[in-house]
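Consider a concrete sample entry:
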Amino acid sequence: MLKAISSIFKILKTAILFPEITLRDLVVGRTVRQSTDYFSNALNLQSSDSYESKSQANPLREYFEAHHEGRGIWKWDHYFDMYHRHLSKFVGTDFKLVEIGIYSGGSLEMWRNYFGPGCHVYGVDIENACKAYESEKVSVFIGDQESPEFWRNFKANVGTVDILIDDGGHTPEQQTVTLNEMLEAIRPGGVYICEDIHGHRNSFINYAVGLVHALNFADHSTSEEGISSPANEVQSTIYSITFYPYALVIEKMAFPRYELRAPRHGTQWQPFYSNFS
């Protein structure tokens, strides 16, 4: 009996993670052993990809792995590839970075080391002790990230920013208020990152998925030239929304987008699609 339950579980798990294999394939066309072999091989490929990414040059990862003394840094291992992928374009430039959640101050030093002298870091924490980490290129603001008033005062003092990394209190309420208050304050081409999004039915994930729905909204108009749809507010300002395990990244458009287009190029077309108006 237990063996049968285990087999059914393996089938369902494979079907969920690898939808290209239908449930009928797993039950009828393949044995459970074959499907689990496929599942294991796919996981091995994913594992080898992660090892390959670790072997590629990533100054943030190198800094973290070499950091054994001094101010503490506490990050999920898979975040470093995410950081480098979305933030490397800022290296060597002059810009403003906000990090919520200072804790022991080590990541403030890591960002300065990675981005260079043009980066001014604005650390935010609720603990007064974190004021100790303030320096010429690191400003520290003490306050509650769940307070809209705090963010209004912050924006009045700092203005717009280029990168915001929310590694603060990690509650859905704090994350929602921060995103709601600060997304517009991130400059065109800027990046928002929220870390440590945990839990089943997390309300912040639902809030972020609302942005995904807006990003995918379409009001199509079709003609001989192709398809077009006017950009809504989210589509005009947000370039991409990317989910990682425990993390969300929003990249903003460098320039406003007013329309999404799918132009037609070519002269030879099959007759079965001619819905032009």
About this structure: The domain at 59-263 is CATH 3.40.50.150 (Rossmann fold). Residues 32-55 form the longest helix (24 residues).
